[in-house]
Amino acid sequence: MAQPPAWRRLASTTSTFTAKSAPSKAHLHKPILDDLFPRGYLLGGVHSGVKKDASMLDLAVLLSTSSRPTSAAASFTRNAFQAAPVTVSKAVLDQTAGRARALVVNSGCANAVTGRQGLSDAWAMARATDALLAPSSSPNSPPSSSHASSSSETLVMSTGVIGQPLPISKILTALRPHGPLAPHTLGHGFAAWEAAARAFMTTDTFPKLRARTLPLGDGRTYRIAGIDKGAGMIHPDMVGVPRPSTTSTSTSAPHATLLGCIATDAPVAPATLQSALNYAVQRSFNAISIDGDMSTNDTVVLFANGAGAGIDGGELSTREIDESRDPGVFVRFRDGLTDFMQELAQLVVRDGEGATKFVTISVEGARTYEDAHKIASRISTSALVKTALYGEDANWGRVLAATGSVPLSAPLDPARVNVSFIPTDRSPILPLLVNGEPEQVDEVRAKEILSAEDLEVRVDLGLGSESAKYWTCDFSYEYVKINGDYRT
């Protein structure tokens, strides 16, 4: 008689608690008013044939139709096996000095570790999408070059199984000028953005889409919208994120996790846009973890097309925002972008494969932000911490062990460390460790806090004033099931 899968045998025979299923995430996706979406963009999503199921969308495009120049910035994975779309998108931004007007995304195949053919296919996707753009004589036009691919204004993203070639002929058929993604078939409201978001999805259980207004002061209000995807193979590379000079035109980018596309109708200079993204990504997408694994395809792109300039803020709003010239406006833009990206990033954690809990890891009292960030990351990736969270076991010693394993800029003093569980219903916190001394823990109260879907674990190092947050989830039997037979 055939044995049941290992995950089911474990769940049924070795567990001392009832295995929990991931809660429904349907409530996290809801309609958005059309007027909240940025002006000057057309989007759509279709089934092109990358995925076998014809009911599932697998190809999306975003086109900027603004008469003003469109700036683009991006963050890419640091994985040594960078996928072909990553290589192509980096090349486009380098060649255009941060000016791009389009994005093409496929799901169902990562086009990663696919050699020369993969690069050729990614460039083919870029050039086919270029053909959907209206001709432009604006400063957005890239410099001329003899290289066949250097005239592209399109960034490329792919997600899915690694090591398999794209069905490129199917994708190019869908991208033909009179095909299902031709500009006249695209839209600019909620329905269009939602279709694009669905085309991003792999193991995601809902399309991740948000939009809001972005007030920048002096009567200037713009709009910002974003799509991201991810439910597994989620964790950023935290080492050596560059912070380029604000006066540089370099498009050298830091590195993020998952796939994300954010668009605003604010006018922002390319180097300034990249600087804002560098800051925001470190505090959003670089502060989440589901399973501690970094993908070959991780990319977050940000467009700013200026189409909202002059509409709400008069002449003051028509000039591109420059970090050195407009520091106050830049900080408001950067901070608004960061808050928006944190909301998008948290949607990924809430949709973590098999996740039953959304957990905020707060590290306070650090000497430096980098110290706090590294400890929060380490706690978030600890399998022992994550399995204890799933089992609703107040095993806070695992939190301490993870904390103490991280090299810091100054030695940690165990006698100053505090650890607490923070409930999200605003009921009293539960101290676990106070100034290095263990508390007599109320196990019933601890179980109440850990049984909630949302909770916070707070660690105070007692060394300084810097802090950082990370968002993570638990490890469940369902996570093993999903990833044990992902390709089938």
UniProtKB/TrEMBL annotation:
Molecular functions (GO terms): L-glutamate N-acetyltransferase activity; L-glutamate N-acetyltransferase activity, acting on acetyl-L-ornithine as donor
Amino-acid biosynthesis in keyword set: yes
GO biological process: L-arginine biosynthetic process; ornithine biosynthetic process
Catalytic function, reaction form: N(2)-acetyl-L-ornithine + L-glutamate = N-acetyl-L-glutamate + L-ornithine; L-glutamate + acetyl-CoA = N-acetyl-L-glutamate + CoA + H(+)
Class of the enzyme per the UniProt entry, highest EC level: transferase
Active site location: T257
SUPFAM superfamilies registered for this protein in UniProt: DmpA/ArgJ-like
Compartments, record wording: Mitochondrion matrix
Assigned EC number: 2.3.1.35, 2.3.1.1
This protein's pathway: Amino-acid biosynthesis; L-arginine biosynthesis; L-ornithine and N-acetyl-L-glutamate from L-glutamate and N(2)-acetyl-L-ornithine (cyclic): step 1/1; Amino-acid biosynthesis; L-arginine biosynthesis; N(2)-acetyl-L-ornithine from L-glutamate: step 1/4
Sites annotated Cleavage: A256, T257
Entry PTM: The alpha and beta chains are autoproteolytically processed from a single precursor protein within the mitochondrion.
Transferase keyword on record: yes
Record-listed substrate binding positions: T202, K229, T257, E353, N483, T488
Site annotation Involved in the stabilization of negative charge on the oxyanion by the formation of the oxyanion hole: residues: T159, G160
Function, in words: Catalyzes two activities which are involved in the cyclic version of arginine biosynthesis: the synthesis of acetylglutamate from glutamate and acetyl-CoA, and of ornithine by transacetylation between acetylornithine and glutamate.
Assembly and oligomerization: Heterodimer of an alpha and a beta chain.
Protein's UniProt name: Arginine biosynthesis bifunctional protein ArgJ, mitochondrial
